[in-house]
Design goal:
Blueprint: H1 3-18, E1 37-42, H2 48-51, E2 55-60, H3 66-82, E3 87-93, H4 97-106, E4 112-116, H5 119-124, E5 133-137, E6 143-147, H6 153-163, H7 172-181, H8 190-203, H9 209-221, H10 225-238, H11 241-263
Parallel strand pairs: 2-3, 3-4
Antiparallel strand pairs: 1-4, 2-5, 5-6
Helix pairs in contact: 7-8, 7-9, 8-9, 9-10, 9-11, 10-11
Length: 269
């Protein structure tokens, strides 16, 4: 090695050692940044509301990228496996809409594919040198993993999907209320709410006024008005004081709503 080459190597090494370490904008545990999309061109739009409480995969790709194309069949398979288990897979690209739609005609993408406004990639991909690159957001809205979609994504999704969704509360009665009366309709799960309320009521030996009152409310939300009236009145008999008065008022409300629907022509087929 000539002295000149040695000096160049030494200079390159010195520059490498003095350079600041590469930092990523996102790390495990960080909150999920928003996804800003011009248009969703495959599957349904993904919104903050629809993604709430779900596992979200945000994968960056491009039609001109051979490794990205190789990942698509795998992501399609993951989508089919986990879609009904609360997992949402998004493919984000900054290309023109026509380029992407033409590409999808030849290589179907069954998961959610969106055209980035530019702000999504600039936040998620800061410090990331190449694509495809995926981020996994857990049900709490925190970054759980990031990396190549063909290297580790399967294991992460299997683990997070197995943990289940459920409701934000560990209390089955509070969870039943969340699942039956929550403001976000996309997150409601009336059959699960009914099962939770019934289980809590049975576990109490059928003596818990609160559990039976919540069970009545779930029946009301499901349209089972006669059952809601009966359950609320039975709950009132188990209660005392203000709780008894509140349950009687609930029963009265359900009864009036039942009568209104019977009399209202618009409430009939």
């Amino acid at each position: 090695m000539t002295p000149r080459v040695m000096r160049c190597v030494a200079l390159a090494l010195a520059l490498a050692l003095s350079a600041p370490p590469l930092t990523w904008a996102l790390d495990v545990g960080d909150p999920m940044p928003p996804i800003s999309v011009k248009k969703w061109v495959s599957n349904t739009p993904v919104t903050a509301a629809s993604a709430k409480g779900k596992v979200v995969v945000v994968e960056f790709w491009a039609t001109w990228c051979p490794p990205c194309r190789q990942s698509i069949p795998h992501l399609n398979k993951l989508h089919e496996t986990y879609e009904k288990k609360g997992v949402v897979i998004c493919g984000i690209t900054q290309e023109q809409e026509s380029t992407v739609t033409d590409f999808i005609k030849t290589m179907p993408m069954k998961y959610h594919v969106g055209i980035d406004t530019g702000s999504t990639g600039s936040v998620y991909m800061k410090g990331v040198s190449g694509i495809p690159h995926a981020f996994v957001i857990d049900r709490r809205g925190k970054v759980a993993w990031q990396g190549h979609p063909m290297a580790g994504l399967d294991d992460v999704l299997a683990k997070l999907a197995a943990e289940g969704g459920g409701a934000a509360s560990d209390d089955p009665l509070e969870a039943a209320l969340e699942l039956s009366t929550g403001a976000d309709l996309s997150q409601r799960d009336l059959p699960k709410a009914l099962a939770l309320a019934r289980k809590a009521y049975e576990a109490s030996g059928r003596k818990d006024a609160k559990a039976l009152g919540i069970l009545a409310r779930v029946h009301y939300e499901m349209g089972h008005l006669p059952t809601a009236v009966e359950a609320a009145l039975a709950a009132a008999k188990l209660a005392t004081g203000e709780e008894e008065a509140a349950l009687k008022a609930a029963a009265d409300f359900y009864k009036k709503e039942l009568e209104r629907r019977r009399e209202d022509p618009a409430a009939k087929f």
